[in-house]
């Protein structure tokens, strides 16, 4: 309903077509409109999201109060160690009382032609092995002057989880296989020792005056020998020579170097000595020139005896397996115990 002034009189005009009968006064109409709007607003707010009242945002709110203390986290003193995987021990099968080896067809083949992996490997005597190498050369029409190689696998274990350090050794073979002698340099300032060294076949002999030519690569040798008095004077060569630098290590069985006063004996060893080393922690691979059977046996025995001298004899056999072969022949396993000298039997006390 709207009131307006017309010609000095106030007249009312109704906004509704129903007339003033339905809404007799303005207050009733206003209340009805507010109820409708309030209902629509509540319905819209409930359907779309959280409701917001007309309360001021700055008004104080009653927040919940915690009346108990928080649980304190416990610190771990020790970190959880990962579980260590237990190493499985290698299973050793005893075939001594079996009718055939484990995983094999039989102890020995019956026919001349057979599959090798179905039978255990044959280990020959040393004499038979050398004879077979000679026969292979005749059957295969190969030259008889080809080199012969030996391959040894060593048991490097010692007591209390210790192991034998890989070593390099020089041995004097009874039948040398080299045609040229090694170059040997002797450090000494004694005139008598220098004269003996020159007469024994040393390539170079001298004292501190040889240091600068060696540093300038004017002089080089295969082996370096020094008397004990010269060791402090040749220290500038330590970085240059490295492994060849003279120092005392296992006497005359060390590699490249030795310190001593018996110059003729040392020169005799290193001029024609045969050198071998331990490779891959436990293998010795060296060469023996093809010779008559007796010479091969003597050289082979000398090498095996020198190898076994690097570990105490009471620790058991040092050589686990031994193989000999040539360029054109197959690898033959032989019994290394037949070559080594047998320990003397202890006499029983009466």
Automatic annotation (TrEMBL):
Extract the Pfam families matched here.
Answer: Ribosomal_L1
Q: Which UniProt keywords apply?
A: Mitochondrion, Ribonucleoprotein, Ribosomal protein, Transit peptide
Q: Where in the cell is it found?
A: Mitochondrion
Q: Which SUPFAM superfamilies match?
A: Ribosomal protein L1
Q: Does the keyword Transit peptide apply?
A: yes
* InterPro entries linked: Ribosomal_uL1-like (IPR023674), Ribosomal_uL1/biogenesis (IPR028364), Ribosomal_uL1_3-a/b-sand (IPR016095)
**Could you name the Gene Ontology cellular component terms for this entry?**
mitochondrial inner membrane; ribonucleoprotein complex; ribosome
Where's it mainly located? mitochondrion
Region feature (Disordered): 76-98
Point to the regions of Basic and acidic residues compositional bias: 77-98
Entry's family note: Belongs to the universal ribosomal protein uL1 family.
> What protein does this entry describe?
Large ribosomal subunit protein uL1m
Q: Which lineage do the record's taxonomy fields give for this organism?
A: Eukaryota, Metazoa, Chordata, Craniata, Vertebrata
């Amino acid at each position: 309903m709207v009131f307006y002034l017309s010609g000095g009189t106030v007249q009312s005009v109704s906004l509704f077509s129903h007339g003033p009968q339905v809404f007799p006064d303005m207050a009733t109409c206003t209340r009805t409109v507010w109820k409708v709007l309030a209902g629509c607003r509540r319905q819209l707010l409930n359907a779309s999201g959280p409701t917001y009242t007309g309360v001021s945002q700055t008004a104080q709110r009653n927040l919940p109060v915690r009346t108990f203390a928080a649980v304190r986290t416990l610190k771990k003193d020790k970190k959880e160690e990962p579980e260590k995987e237990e190493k499985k021990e290698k299973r050793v099968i005893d075939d001594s009382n079996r009718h055939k080896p484990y995983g094999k067809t039989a102890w020995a083949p019956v026919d001349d032609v057979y599959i090798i992996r179905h039978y255990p490997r044959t280990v020959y005597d040393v004499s038979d092995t050398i004879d077979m190498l000679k026969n292979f050369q005749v059957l295969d029409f190969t030259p008889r002057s080809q080199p012969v190689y030996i391959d040894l696998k060593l048991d490097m274990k010692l007591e209390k989880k210790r192991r034998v350090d890989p070593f390099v050794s020089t041995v004097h073979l009874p039948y040398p296989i080299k045609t040229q002698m090694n170059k040997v340099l002797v450090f000494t300032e004694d005139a008598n020792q220098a004269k003996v060294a020159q007469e024994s076949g040393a390539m170079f002999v001298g004292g501190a005056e040889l240091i600068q030519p060696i540093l300038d690569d004017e002089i080089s040798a295969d082996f370096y020998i020094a008397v004990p008095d010269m060791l402090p004077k040749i220290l500038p060569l330590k970085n240059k020579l490295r492994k060849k630098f003279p120092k005392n290590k296992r006497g005359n069985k060390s590699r490249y170097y030795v310190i001593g006063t018996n110059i003729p004996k040392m020169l005799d060893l290193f001029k024609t000595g045969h050198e071998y080393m331990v490779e891959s922690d436990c293998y010795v691979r060296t060469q023996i020139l093809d010779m008559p059977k007796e010479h091969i046996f003597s050289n082979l025995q000398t090498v095996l005896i020198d190898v076994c001298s690097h570990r105490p004899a009471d620790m058991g056999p040092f050589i686990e397996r031994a193989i000999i072969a040539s360029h054109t022949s197959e690898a033959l396993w032989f019994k290394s115990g037949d070559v080594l000298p047998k320990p003397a039997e202890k006499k029983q006390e009466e």
